[in-house]
Specification:
Order of helices and strands: HEHHHHEEHHHEEHHHHHHHHHHHHHHH
Distance between the termini: 55 Å
Number of helices: 23
Strand order of the largest sheet: 1-2-3-5-4
Mean pLDDT: 81
Helix content: 55-70%
Structural class: alpha+beta
Strand content: 5-15%
Oligomer: single chain
Shape: globular
Number of strands: 5
Length: 499
């Protein structure tokens, strides 16, 4: 087969937006293996992380082929009428598994495809690290999990790859030595077994590698992000009138009537707040006509979040700038989607705060991107001089301005404006849900899903880009459901804008 060329533009777009690159296959032929390896090399080169290429290339081949073999086991055991979950039958089946399947690979791979036993290879970067994830449509058995854990334990006993090579090969599994070597290769570049995770849930086995950028790259990106936020002259202080009201909200001795009166004394703010409360997102049965009604409807937390939304827009909105307007239009859409989905799917008392925080977090999730557009033209030159003085790679600076680190930049701005930690964390981790603190993980997954759903409607991502955890949270089984949900929310959003 002719070699498939890598779409470098698509890879760069995924890097800059934080969207995962996803490839789904059922048979994983050598042509696809070579193609995925090329994608990996381009991906790491664009990130200036060439030191990872050799290690991750080996890991990718090892894990993807193990996933393919795990799927083959399922169809093989079914044909042999053996229960793969029973230890004695597992042992009996594995005695001839290798020889039987090697002699008739195409037959078993065809069966895997017919049964929908996929392999998903996912590459993503966010917050100065690379995530490589392999998912296959088969949960680990207890015996398989024990064997994997045994190989990881054995790997800790070796001091080098050479020692690992001398380990006995487990003939029944065939890939034991490969896994040991992978762990040793990760150790060689300064990583530990903690960077390697194996999960089994929702009918899938998920193998995940989290690799941080080189220490120098991480430090440089953190330094550049902080310097960038500090140098932005176009970034004003958060509106004092809104800050004063938030201080009043946080005062335990304040009465609801005091807060409502303070807001009502600001005519401009009153108008903006009532406009937001009466927007389609909140779907009120009848219009809210006073701040006292708004406070009763939204509650203290809701009013505080709406004030943060209004304050951010006042500080960062420039309607005449088409790039900024496009970002805000996307943010409005994500806010609407987030709040609508939260009210529909999250109805338990424990979810109340998720619903209350969904709109503001959806609206402000891409604050970092908006801040980049806000920067005055001279900022690019200033940052270039700073990079030269600090000896920072120009490529790293280019990626920062392209939005690679927009989660961290947005979070830094939110910290500067004394936003609550829940908003700061969602902004920082909306492209890296697994790293979000447990207290905000569900909310972060909601915003992440709503962001992807908006991009899906805009034609920027496809179904393969959706995280399995997010699909499971909303009980979505296939792309038809995603398309239906996206169309429904789009109609509601547009009808609301036309009000």
């Amino acid at each position: 087969m002719a070699k498939v060329a890598v779409d470098v533009t698509k890879v760069r777009k995924a890097i800059h937006s934080g969207v995962p690159l996803v490839l789904t296959t059922y048979t994983y032929p050598r042509s696809i293996e070579a193609y995925v390896d090329d994608i990996l090399r381009v991906f790491l080169t664009e990130l200036n992380q060439g030191q990872m290429v050799e290690t991750l290339s080996y890991c990718l081949k090892e894990l993807a082929n193990n996933a393919k073999k795990a799927n083959t086991k399922r169809v093989y055991f079914e044909l042999k009428q053996l229960d793969i979950n029973k230890t004695d039958e597992y042992k009996r089946g594995m005695e001839a598994f290798k020889s039987d399947t090697l002699n008739n690979q195409s037959y078993y791979l065809d069966l895997q495809k017919k049964k929908g036993l996929y392999i998903k290879i996912i590459l993503q970067t966010s917050n100065s690290k690379v995530k490589l994830e392999i998912r296959n449509k088969a949960e680990l058995t207890v015996d398989e999990y024990k064997r994997i854990h045994d190989k990881i334990t054995r790997a800790t006993k070796f001091d080098s790859i050479e020692q690992g090579m001398a380990a006995l090969l487990d003939e029944s599994e065939g890939a034991g030595l490969g896994l040991i070597m992978m762990i040793l290769m990760l150790r060689k570049i300064g990583l530990t077994e903690e960077n390697y995770q194996v999960l089994s849930e929702g009918g899938e086995t998920i193998t995940r590698l989290i690799l941080p950028f080189s220490e120098s790259s991480r430090q440089d990106m953190v330094m550049l992000s902080r310097q960038f936020v500090d140098l932005i002259k176009g970034l004003p202080e958060f509106p004092e009138n809104i800050s004063a009201i938030n201080r009043l909200i946080n005062d335990p001795n304040s009465e609801m009537s005091d807060i409502a009166m303070r807001i009502s004394n600001d005519v401009s703010l009153t108008g903006e707040l009532l406009k937001m409360v009466n927007s389609a997102a909140f779907s009120l049965a009848s219009p809210c006509r006073s701040i006292s009604e708004a406070v009763k409807f939204a509650g203290i937390r809701g009013i505080r979040n709406l004030l943060f939304s209004i304050g951010s827009m006042k500080s960062l909105m420039v309607d005449s700038d088409p790039k900024k307007k496009a970002l805000w239009d996307h943010s409005y859409r994500v806010a609407f989607y987030s709040y609508s989905l939260a009210r529909k799917y999250f109805k338990t008392p424990a979810d109340k705060k998720v619903v209350e925080d969904s709109y503001v977090c959806g609206l402000l999730h891409d604050m970092g991107k908006i801040v980049f557009v806000t920067a005055e033209p001279t900022m690019y030159e200033k940052m270039g001089v700073l990079c030269q003085a600090k000896g920072v790679s120009p490529g790293l600076f280019e990626r920062l301005f392209a939005g690679v680190n927009h989660g961290d930049v947005g979070a830094l701005v939110a910290e500067k404006w004394n936003f609550p930690s829940v908003i700061i964390n969602v902004i920082r981790y909306h492209h890296d849900v697994a790293e979000a603190p447990d207290a905000v993980k569900k909310l972060t997954l909601l915003i992440h899903f709503s962001d992807l759903l908006a991009h899906y409607k805009e034609g920027i991502v496809d179904y393969s880009n959706f995280d399995t955890d997010a699909l499971k949270l909303f009980n979505i089984k296939d792309e038809a459901q995603i398309a239906l949900l996206a169309d429904s929310l789009d109609v509601q959003f547009k009808n609301g804008k036309d009000r």
